[in-house]
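Reopening closed ticket. The problem is back. First fold of the pair:
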Amino acid sequence: MINIKYKEKDIPLLGDELEVGDEAPRLTLKTKNLAPVEIAPPGKTQILLSMPSLDTPVCSKQAKETNKRLASMKNIEVIIISMDLPFAADRFCATEGISNIIVASDFAFKEFGLKYGTLIGESIFAGLLARAAFVVKDGKIVYKQFVEELMGKIDFKDLELFMHKTYGYPLN
């Protein structure tokens, strides 16, 4: 089990702890318009970014940065996953001009959180997702990053460097 921190206090994460090389759990989430999006389908490469809620300053900034920095990667599906209702995610994307990435919700069954080990356990944030990044290629986890502090940010430079070294994507 992984722990993250909030103001130096440990917060346990629930679910399976995945490692690079593991089979990526396949599941289906709902997008902002209630359409299904499959996570970890064979033959695809996806960047999966989990975060607590688009309605917070750090997550909002991270979503805008993702839309700007990662969406230009050709043949890569970039998906932000949160516990926000699909309708709220749709309003957020419309208001913030986010149209280059997929925004999906795990609110209904918390399946992503449990299968990818990002579901926040006992704390005032219980039920939300921790901030993490996974790259899934052909059904395998090839990259993993957990943000240790709940209010911290995903290290885009590290993710971009991995994508550059591994797949030749240009650095921003």
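Second fold of the pair, where the issue appears:
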Amino acid sequence: MNPSFPAAPFVERAGEPTEANIRELVYGFYDRVRADPLLGPVFDATLAGRWEDHLPKMCTFWGSLVLGAKQYRGNVQQAHEPLEGVEPQHFSRWLYLFLDTVESRYQPAAAVRFMEPALRIAQSLQLSRFGWDYKIPEEQQALLERVAPKRRPPGDEHAGGALAATRPPGEPFPARIVGQAKDD
């Protein structure tokens, strides 16, 4: 996938998340969001004049998820409901920018601690907004295939197998949808 935006700036990649480097991640990521021609207008329409309040909340949110700080007291679904004009391509771009920023700032084992929650959150927000039969855009599918581990068909025990995992209708993401019945 060739992103249509500049790569994240080079910084020394951290081996472990800390409050300080989470703050740097959040502020660096939202600098990229604000400069992005697709995402910037959507975020500015909602956060114009309130970025100084929003960014510390995002630091607390990611610190709670990644460090287990348990300080964030908000409802992610509710906070994103009033956003007008959000389409599938906005989720794809947000994910790509976020994961690219995380990859540029953390070593792989630490980066996964951000990527897995980001993918779950995006999944939840997209299904809530677009419905259970929502089919994610091709560019986002490619991103998810690159980041998320592939599932093997039942009975495929070959560790290095190149078989592509198939996903049943209604389960477009690599993680099992919470509340969905197990396969028979």
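Update: turned out to be a display glitch only; the data is intact. Confidence is low (pLDDT under 50) at residues 159-184. Helices lie at 19-35, 39-47, 51-67, 76-80, 88-105, 108-130, 138-147. Please close again.
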